[in-house]
Structures are given as C-alpha cells and as structure tokens.
Amino acid sequence: MLWSDPENEPPKELRDAQAMMRRAGLILALTMVIAMLAAGLH
Fold first, then answer.
1. Angle at the Cα of 20 (from 39 to 26), degrees rounded to 5?
2. What are the TM regions of this chain, as residue ranges (predicted)?
3. How far apart are CA 17 and CA 31, in angstroms?
C-alpha cells in the first residue's frame, strides 16, 4: 500500500446506515431484555 493511496473508508451513506443498524440492534436487544423481565414478573 502506497502513501498516495486514498483511505479505504466507506462512503458516508454506508457509515450512516451502519450506525443506524447498530442503534436499531441495541434498541432491539434492550427491548428483548425488558420484555423478558416483564414476562418473568407476571
């Protein structure tokens, strides 16, 4: 790899989509935990 090569950084849209997917996954995981706790309490 040469110093003159551009950074192999994904385009902004892709990075935004990845960040959104990570947030969605985190929210889904939290929702599942809360649902399991609610099911366990009843």
1. 25
2. 20-41
3. 21
